Amino acid sequence: TPMSFPVNPSKSAVRWKLRCVFCKERVTSSDALKGHAYYAFGGMWHAEHMNCAKCKVNVSEIPFCQSPTDPAALMCTDCYMIDNNPDCAVCGTRLYETALDAGGKMYHKDCFKCKTCKNPCNDGHYMTDDTGAIYDVDCYHIMALDRDYGTNLGGNKE
After folding, report:
1. In whole angstroms, what is the distance from residue 158 CA to residue 17 CA?
2. Comparing C-alpha atoms, which of 79, 132, 82 is closest to residue 104?
3. For residue 47, what is the DSSP state?
4. What does residue 123 show for φ and ψ, rounded to 5 degrees?
5. Upper half-sphere CA count for residue 69 (Cβ side, 13 Å)
6. Are 88 and 106 in contact (CB under 8 A)?
7. Average pLDDT, consecutive stretches of 10 residues, N- to C-terminus, the chain (158 residues)
8. Which stretches does DSSP call E strand in 34-158?
């Protein structure tokens, strides 16, 4: 059966009243036109209520994220990264910038170095041993020859 609608609905039944996610007060079109209200993550916010759930900085004019634990809370990008980004597999500090993913581990670009020569492997060419240690291609082959054939090319003392 087709849906039926009231023939003469009251204005209050038709009018959609937007409410601020934070304060639950009405958000008017005037608020939005003046730049005092924003739509984010499925709801309207008064600009003055768009504060980071952790550090309380106003995020209405800066990049922000939705809190992973509370969909009605916002977080500045810095606090979001502090709480949610992984740690570097080498130095153990939080990854904020672009990170490298190798073998299921995450690294700072500067921490992604060959175990033997300590040179960066950020050209994308690297190898790992059974322990997950990172080697540039040359050092890996030298290490493998030393290990498998006792060549001592890497200068290892026996």
Report:
1. 79
2. 132
3. G
4. -90, 0
5. 6
6. yes
7. 49 64 91 91 93 96 93 92 91 87 86 91 82 89 86 65
8. 37-40, 43-46, 64-66, 74-76, 100-102, 105-107, 127-128, 134-135
